Amino acid sequence: MKRVKLMAVAAAVVAIASGSAYAGPTGQINIPSVDAKSLKEVTINVSNNVRFSTDSDAGPNLYDIGVVTGLLPYEKIKLEVGADYGTTGVATKQPMTYNVKLATTEDALFVGLPAFAIGGYNLGNITTDAINSGTNAQNIYYGLVAKTFGKAGRFSVGGYIGDKAVLVNASKDGDNTGVIASWDRTISEVSDKLWVGVDYMSGNNGDGEFSVGGSWAFSKQITLLSGVTFYNEKATGGKTAFTTQLSINLP
């Protein structure tokens, strides 16, 4: 019965909001994190990225629903995989994308060692005319290192590379490589349920952005994140957007 209720919540959110801009692997707001699912953990992510502006140059709204799960039975090293169904407000020929991540926890081998993660997201087939084909398969690969400094929170930094056919704009002056970075912290002084974070992805492409947001865990099963995303270049990323991301952990 609990699972039926959780699925009903997910369906309701999809119906009301139409889906998150970022689902993909376990992440911060719009970039991946070093966190990963353990064996048998399953999370459904439902996200929306809705523009504040309705101008013709504001960019499309982004909708996504995905599922991610862990595959390894270890506490300090984890492997997660996932799949997403996303749209950009227009018809897309490849709505399905996939993600994979291998990650270690902090202090995995010795005290003081940072956490590490490597992986890929928005993975899928690339056509020879990707820009005009409607594909959203960016094939982004990344590496991350993260360290928590007590009450100062956790700091993460890394880099990414993606497919030029999708990330570089039509005039060929965009970027398909760059830096990803973030800061996040659970505000335990208020509640262990409250989390805040910021993240950044460099590059003149559709994904380059700076985001701020926070989430509240209503229960062990349901967490809702909301935030604001500012894109690096309006010509490629569009105008500022409001994101909501619902995470449903299946028992």
Protein model, in words:
The chain has 251 residues and is mainly beta. It has a single domain, classed as Porin. Helices cover 11% and strands 45% of the residues. The protein contains four helices and twelve strands; from the N terminus they run αβββββαββαββββαβ. It has a twelve-stranded antiparallel beta barrel. A hairpin with a 4-residue loop joins strand 10 and strand 11 (222-231).
Kindly, what is the distance between the CA atoms of the first and last residues, rounded to a whole number of angstroms? 11 Å
Major sheet summary line: 12 strands, antiparallel, barrel
Order of helices and strands: HEEEEEHEEHEEEEHE
Strand content bin:
35-45%
Number of domains: 1
CATH third-level topology: Porin
Query: From the 3D coordinates, which CATH architecture would you assign?
Result: Beta Barrel
The first-level CATH class is given as: Mainly Beta
Given the C-alpha coordinates, what overall shape results? Answer: globular
- Supply the helix-strand structural class: mainly beta
